[in-house]
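Dear support,

I submitted the protein below through the web form. The confirmation email said the job was done, but the results page showed an empty box. After a refresh the structure appeared. I'm attaching both so you can tell me whether what I see now is the final result or a partial one.
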Amino acid sequence: MNSSLAVGALASWLLAELLGAYMLSNWVRSGAARRRREEPEGMSLPVLAAHAGLNLAGLACWIGFVASRWRPSAWLALCFMVPAIGLGVSTVSIWTPYPARRHAKMAVGEEGSADPGPEPARHAAALPDHMLAHTLDDETAASRLIDDLLARNLTTQTAPRRSVAGLRALVPFLHGVLAIATFLLATLAAISVS
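What the results page shows now:
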C-alpha cells in the first residue's frame, strides 16, 4: 500500500472537515438556524446533518484504515464519502451566497406603517412588493418610510470596506476542492492496497 496516499487523503479530509465546521459555525452564528422555522425554503437541516454525519463516519473509517491497513475499512469510508459529497453539492446550490444571508423582517402595522423591527441599522431591510405598494399608496406611511431610510443612512458610519465577499466565496469552494481531492486520494490509496 502507498501510505503517503492514505496519509495525504487523511490530511485533506481533516482540512475539509475543519472548513466545514467553520462554515457550520458561521451559519449558526448568523442566526440562519433559528430562522429555519420562519423561512423553510432555506438550508435543509436534515440534509446538512446527513452531509456532516456521513463525512464524520467516513473519516472514522478512514482513520481506522490508516491505523490498521484493513482494506474493507477504506472501501467503507469511500461508501460514506460518495453520498456525503452528493449532499454537499446540494447544499451549495441552496446555500448561495455564503454565509446565509441576514434577512431583515419588515412588519406592517395596523395603520400600514413599516416597522423595521429589531434589525440593526447597518443592514438594509427589504419589503415585499405588495407591502411596498401598500406603503407607497399611503402618503403618511411613505413619508415615514423615507424618513426612516434617510435617518438610517445618515447615522450609519461609513467605514472603508474590505472585499470580504470574495474571500467568503473561497471557503466553500476550497471545501469542495478538498472533498474532491480527498476522494481521489482515498480511492487511489484503497486501490493500491494489496
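Response: this is the final, complete result; the empty box was a page-load delay. Residues 107-155 form one domain.
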